[in-house]
Amino acid sequence: METIVQSQEQIQYAEAYISDMPELKKIFLQMKEVKKVDSNFGLPFMLAKKKNETVAFASLIVNEKNEISFKIYDKNRMSEAEKRNFFSNTERYFKNNTTPNFRDPGQLESSIKRMVSWLNLE
Questions:
Q1: Cα gap 25→31, rounded to integer Å
Q2: What H or E segment, with its residue span, contains residue 107?
Q3: In the predicted model, what is the mean pLDDT of the chain?
Q4: Of the candidates 116, 16, 10, 3, which has an alpha carbon nearest to the alpha carbon of residue 57?
């Protein structure tokens, strides 16, 4: 009997940097089917990669209750288990971060506006 070995692609998590924004913008525009980013884009802070491809990212948002939360955008290239794992890692990072964008809704809204404005300059 033959044994088939499937290599599972390892998902890597990383903080989102300014150099990642053009790629994250593309993901957002494709998912939302829009031409420009808006405040729903949020402020990306975490991403997931398979090989060298970004397959998901998490963004800080200010929700309708004026509380800081996060939203995950993904390209539907992760299994349900991978999505849950990314959510758990993102949630842990979110809860442990004490910088102003993670704790001050006014600061975050200002940062999101600046990010959206910068990304829409192109």
A1: 10
A2: helix 105-119
A3: 91
A4: 16
